[in-house]
């Protein structure tokens, strides 16, 4: 009966009002209300965006193998990557460097660009001089190095990176090691904050570093010291509290797209998260072609975008910047901004 009511509300448009959406880069699709255009520099499977203090947007492409910069004046340039897939170029100009499967990007206010070079099993950096380097990881698949130097730590697919507000810590979703790792840029050490390497659903209240995870795909800290963990195959959002204990806050573990109380709501192979200024968590619910929102104050999950006129196709990225939510609509090769 509840499922029927949910479907009825969705059909009648009573579940959620579509927000105002602006096209940042790419094209509208027919029927969405904007012109269908062809860009001179089209994106090739964009996966993530982030911003520096000047409002420049940095875009990483999975298929294109490049990092682009879009200024507030809409000037588009390529700052890294030659388009091929390999692991080369450290110590030289980023434009000549190669990457493999970039999934996400994190940018400091000063303009240093950190990249989850996922299939090279590391985190790369493009500094403000335009030079490329590896800052975390060996570049070889494996697991190890906790308590040791950043460059000696081993990862197996660095699927997501997110920085804290001070930009001195990088949280890393080490998906095939089933762990969330943290690289402390001040101490130069790596540690594990969630996951014991085994596959499973963590019990609520368990110590996060001793508990199993299904497949941590994304990670994001909030302003209160909580660290949110998104599980793709687990179809769930979990949180590691400041005391180190982990809890599931959204998702039943089964695939679906039902809104409502977090533990009753369902997700569909979600890929990325971000946290806004009020500590709400936005979810790129990729298999459902939706953007969802988890409100920690109420515990409710709601649908934000994809349920109305503007349709999404495998969205892989969400970023909160200066009161606006940016959506990487990967299948449509475009970037959208939600205005309200």
Topology summary:
Blueprint: H1 2-12, E1 21-25, E2 46-51, E3 57-61, E4 67-70, E5 76-80, E6 102-107, E7 113-117, E8 122-126, E9 132-136, E10 158-163, E11 169-174, E12 179-184, E13 189-194, E14 206-207, E15 216-221, E16 227-231, E17 236-240, E18 245-250, E19 260-261, E20 272-275, E21 281-285, E22 290-295, E23 300-305, E24 317-321, E25 324-329, E26 334-338
Antiparallel strand pairs: 1-26, 2-3, 3-4, 4-5, 6-7, 7-8, 8-9, 10-11, 11-12, 12-13, 14-18, 15-16, 16-17, 17-18, 19-23, 20-21, 21-22, 22-23, 24-25, 25-26
Features:
single chain, 340 residues, mainly beta, Neuraminidase, 26 strands, disordered N terminus
Plain-language structure description:
The protein is mainly beta and 340 residues long. The protein has one domain: 6 Propeller (Neuraminidase). Helices cover 3% and strands 39% of the residues. The strands form 6 sheets. It has a 5-stranded antiparallel beta sheet with strand order 14-18-17-16-15, with no helix packed on it. The chain has a 5-stranded antiparallel beta sheet with strand order 19-23-22-21-20, with no helix packed on it. Strand 8 (122-126) and strand 9 (132-136) form a beta hairpin. The longest helix has 11 residues, at 2-12. Residues 1-14 have low confidence and may be disordered.
Q: Examine the secondary-structure arrangement and name the CATH architecture.
A: 6 Propeller
Mean pLDDT score: 94
CATH topology: Neuraminidase
Can you identify the CATH class? Mainly Beta
Q: How many beta-strand runs?
A: 26
Largest sheet: 5 strands, antiparallel
- Which structural class matches the secondary elements? mainly beta
Number of domains: 1
Strand order of the largest sheet: 14-18-17-16-15
Tell me the fraction of residues in β-strands, as a range.
Answer: 35-45%
Helix count, DSSP H or I runs of 4 or more residues:
1
- Helix residue percentage: under 10%
Cα radius of gyration in angstroms: 19 Å
